Amino acid sequence: HAELLALEAAGLDAEHVLRAATSNAAVALSANLLLGRVAPGALADLILVDGDPLASVSDARKVIAVVRNGRFFSVAGLLEKAVGAE
In sequence order, what DSSP letters do the residues of 61-83 get, joined into one string? Predict the structure, then answer.
């Protein structure tokens, strides 16, 4: 997230900051058919945030849930499991 904020501080607008972290990064890795987009056949791990990262890049830090391999995980549930595992 520090890198996202640094890109914003360097003058990129929120859309370009988010593209740099997602679809542009996938292109740089030559993996743009599988990563960095939501489309049929793509690997679509997602984060859900409380806010609008296109309005404020810092909202990307407000993660409330993750979808990984088609499974939904709330941050609260993950923290509960981590505390219970101690």
Answer: G-EEEEEETTEEEEHHHHHHHHH
